[in-house]
Amino acid sequence: MGNVFTRIGESTGDYPLFAGEWEKRAREILPAGPFGFLQSGAGDEVTLGQNREAFNDYDILPRVLRDVSNVDPSIQLFGQEQSLPLMLAPVGFQGIFHSEKEIGSVKAAAAAGIPFVASTVTSASLEEIAAAAPKAVKWFQLYWSKNLDLTASMARRAEEAGYQAIVVTVDTGLLGWRKRDYRNGYSPLKLLQGAANYIHDPVFQDMVPQLTEKHIRDAILDNIHHPNLSWDDLRFLRNQTKLPIVVKGILHPADARQVVDLGLDAIIVSNHGGRQLDGAIASVRALPAIVQEVDEAVPILMDGGVRSGADVFKAIALGADSVLIGRPYVYGLVADGQAGVSRVIGDLRTELELTYALSGVTRTAEISSAYLVKR
Ligand code: FNR
């Protein structure tokens, strides 16, 4: 990693754009349906707003007069190097945002040296995504299917395609109350977006009588909702794959404890970007109790509302090992495909390196609660 001060403006072109500006571009480009789907949260969007606001509960307490001429924010997770404590969160249906779909996103992640998490409901299949960026660190996010053979088959395909971890999302047993989508009458799954991993799956092909639009859609909708999913099911997955299993959507310390007790490998503290349970605790507010409960037994990641270098720094100071961003990189994808995602990551990198330097740290491992005060 270079000297932060020579990197300003250099990594990203002329002048850095900020999350709000990318968002504005996305709003101008996308029709109301897909934009509402990307942007909105559940219910009255209280949790969506709190995810952002909660970062203001804390202030950075910087140290000065230290040599910060060489900042290196890189970290190791599961023995894999990542150039920043940042990953691209699983965001399904990327074909509704840009013709490059997830391929643009995974290539930008690969170029930046950060992991990409592919959703179950991608527009390109998990094999196509892997083939487009063979060197990238890729994780596969699994939406549990009611049909266990289908669940096992997707995990197996991800392992065979070179994905390095399975992320099980556990906050979507039922779909959240998405008022904006209802108002717009918009549902990407109904349009058969996000079906690629199902259509390519041999178990799925045997399940549906014919690969017609209606049969595919009905089978996906029937399989994706699983209000009876339980910790026992995660035991089943543990026996299906050698890959690390990451549980996404944990907010309660007792659930974090279950992850550790079951021998699973990492936690993503998340409320699904405020898209599921409105009124749920902001991710960054849920983080400290989980960090305390887990006591370094497994890595802890978080997502929800991360928009700036200061946000990443604060999450790490609160005990996260890495963070994920969802909407911000998709705004970049909407605006300019892979190049847009690269700019979003590049600007965040520059800002993050500056935040390290101006806080008096040069390595991610140096960041601790000593650099934070609660307001
Ligand atoms: C998501 N998210 C998500 N999560 C997941 O596990 N599987 C998925 O398929 C999706 N799909 C998805 C689509 C869209 C349009 C959005 C905005 C989000 C949630 C995502 O992984 C992440 O938790 C949040 O986006 C993080 O919050 P921010 O960074 O968007 O505030």
UniProtKB/TrEMBL annotation:
InterPro entries assigned to the protein according to its UniProt record, in alphabetical order: Aldolase_TIM, Alpha-hydoxy_acid_DH_FMN, FMN-dep_DH, FMN_HAD, FMN_hydac_DH_AS
Binding site for glyoxylate: 143, 178, 272, 275
Active site: 272
Required cofactor names: FMN
Keyword Hydrolase: no
Pfam families: FMN_dh
Residues annotated for FMN binding in this entry: 90-92, 119, 141, 169, 248, 270, 303-307, 326-327
Record flagged with keyword Flavoprotein: yes
EC number(s) recorded for this UniProt protein: 1.1.3.15
PROSITE patterns membership: FMN_HYDROXY_ACID_DH_1, FMN_HYDROXY_ACID_DH_2
Reaction it catalyzes: 2-hydroxyoctanoate + O2 = 2-oxooctanoate + H2O2; (S)-lactate + O2 = pyruvate + H2O2; 2-hydroxyoctadecanoate + O2 = 2-oxooctadecanoate + H2O2; mandelate + O2 = phenylglyoxylate + H2O2
Gene Ontology molecular-function annotations: (S)-2-hydroxy-acid oxidase activity; FMN binding; isomerase activity
Key words of the record: Flavoprotein, FMN, Isomerase, Oxidoreductase
Domain (FMN hydroxy acid dehydrogenase): residue spans on this chain: 11-375
Homology family: Belongs to the FMN-dependent alpha-hydroxy acid dehydrogenase family.
Protein name: L-lactate oxidase
